[in-house]
Amino acid sequence: MRPGKTGESTRMASSISLSIDSDLDKVAHIARAVRGVCSGLLSTDDADAVEISVVEAINNVIKHGYQGQPGQDVEVHVVLHKDQVVIDVIDHASPMRTELLDQASEERFAFDETNLDEVPEGGMGLALIQMNMDEVEYTSEGGENRLRMIKRVA
């Protein structure tokens, strides 16, 4: 602990940074590591939500940003605060169109599963992330893309 103002929380957040190359076979390793880091802070359901969101975010980077090309960097930074978990997925791929995140919602799952013509062609991963996380923000600047996902501690 370090000194702080009276009444101010003096506990520093803990963090971890992970990195893989753009190989879909490595995504599960990162997701399990993030889940492990969050396990003491989040409920099982919230840890499930975080794990799913991390998988979807990294899969999107690899499939859409890097077009499946291996050997590209994907970084994941996790910061644990007493009241929330902040996860940044960072890449240097082509930027995502920002309206894709705005259009991602639970409505993507409102279709008749028996009618294949009604199944949406994209946006399901982003919609899952939006549904599972409390806050989602995307920025792209200077060749760096960052998807920030926040899960509040229940």
TrEMBL record:
Keywords of this entry: Kinase, Serine/threonine-protein kinase, Transferase
MF term (GO), any: protein serine/threonine kinase activity
Domain Histidine kinase/HSP90-like ATPase: 22-151
Coiled-coil segments: none
InterPro entries: Anti-sigma-factor_SerPK, HATPase_C_sf, HATPase_dom
KW Iron-sulfur (keyword) present: no
SUPFAM superfamilies assigned: ATPase domain of HSP90 chaperone/DNA topoisomerase II/histidine kinase
Classification via Gene3D superfamilies: Histidine kinase-like ATPase, C-terminal domain
Pfam families the UniProt entry points to: HATPase_c_2
Keyword Transferase: yes
Cross-referenced PANTHER family: ANTI-SIGMA-F FACTOR RSBW, ANTI-SIGMA-F FACTOR RSBW-RELATED
Name of the protein described by the UniProt record: Serine/threonine-protein kinase RsbW
Organism: Microvirga subterranea
